[in-house]
Sequence to fold (302 residues):
Amino acid sequence: MKSLFITLLVLGGAFAAYDYFLAPPGSKIIFTELNPPPKPKTVVEAAPEPEKPAEAPPPAPEPEAPKPVEAPKMVETAPAAPAAPKAGSIEALTNNWTNIPPTAFPREVTLLKDAEFKMAVGGSKVTAGRKVQAIAFKQGMLALIPAAGSPAKAIVSIDDTDLKQVLTGIYEKWKVARAEYLSKNAAQRQQVASAVRAESSTANSNRAEADETGKPIRGDDRSYPLLLTSIRRGQVTDIKPDKIISWGDPNPTKVQGKDGWAIKVEYQAETIFGLQAVEAQALVVNGRVQGWFYTGSGEEVP
Fold:
């Protein structure tokens, strides 16, 4: 036991001597005061990342210009075309009251609405129900004067007066008289037509009124004796010799498949609106007038 203690003491002294003399500084166990003070740990901080320049905020979107608000589209419907006027009516004669000849005026009418009549200085109001004079018509408007010779004038719609009713009444009476006139002349015209057909079947013997080709010859007054003879003997009743305005030149044409001549004649015809210039043409074959026809419609002239 004693020897163990001595051994341990020797080992302890040897370790103490080693620790004091031989142990490197900083690793001494018994004589720790001989160790150098621990160096403060140097904390290597990572270099700060360079600050990125602050990104400019994206530009605020510009407010969109307000779009114009489109008005709701209206479905346009084409105005219904006016009904075609009935043939032989006053509407057909005036083209639905858009064409009233100047010969229809002056005409007394009654105001259906008040009208303002103006003069160079001042004016006056004429109330509905008064009778005035219609003196002209243009594009649906009537020119009125309060009395014949008055300098005052008003321009009103045709519907502001009773002109339509006035002319309709006159036209209806005129149609009756016209029908009676045509009826009285129908028999005479049939007789004349029969005579003309009989003459057409024979050779042309009247060389003074037509040449060898059957072409009508002009007279000294620029008229055609052949056509005047046709008028005077009643082949046509609507044309009067003293109402003829002008005679046209003979133009070659075909009449029922035969070579013939057409001669236009402008004359004044009696109408509902008084005398008006009308154009018709006489058709001539072999020196004989075969008939008279309106140049516009092609209808036979009564």
In short: The chain is about 25% helix and 25% strand. The chain has a mean pLDDT of 81. The helical segments are 2-22, 90-93, 163-200, 225-232.
